[in-house]
Amino acid sequence: MGKRKTLVRAITTQTDLEAFQNSKTYADFLAFIRACNQSVRGIAISQDYPNKNGPVVSALVAYLEEAWGWVDDIPALQQPMRFGNKAFRTWHARLEATAPRAIENLLVASQVGR
């Protein structure tokens, strides 16, 4: 294996950017991005997603969706605050209170199929 080269910022001016945009490296990189884009064109993001989740991922997603729902249950306070919205404290307290159950569900889910 060859000697490692220390990375340095090489694009610092408009002229550097234009030189990069006219380089073979840029053309190759852009071709790679376009090929990746083309390979997934017409495939929905969620097309096979639910069927490929294991029990642990499903349990975690369910908990995150539950926590996201609390945003509607605990609306932000509409008043000036110096150190962030105090409703976050309520949301976080609920997160702390439900975390043991969520972890237990994840542990149970991790044992499914063993």
Features:
114 residues, mainly alpha, 5 helices, 0% strand, extended, rotamase, PTPA_sf, Serine/threonine-protein phosphatase 2A activator, cytoplasm, protein tyrosine phosphatase activator activity
Question: Concise description?
Answer:
The chain is mainly alpha-helical. The chain contains 5 helices and no strands.
Describe this structure in words.
The chain has 114 residues and is mostly helical. The protein has a domain of 63 residues. α4 packs antiparallel against α5.
User: How helical, in percent, are the residues?
Assistant: 55-70%
Q: Terminal Cα separation, in Å?
A: 42 Å
* Shape call: extended
The tally of strands reads 0
- The rounded Rg comes to 24 Å
Output the helix-strand order.
HHHHH
- Into which percentage range does the β-strand content fall? under 5%
The low-confidence runs, each spanning 5 or more residues with pLDDT under 50, are: none
- What's the number of helices? 5
- Biggest sheet character: none
Average pLDDT, rounded to a whole number, is 87
Structural class designation: mainly alpha
Topology readout:
Layout: H1 14-21, H2 24-40, H3 49-52, H4 55-73, H5 87-111
Helix pairs in contact: 4-5
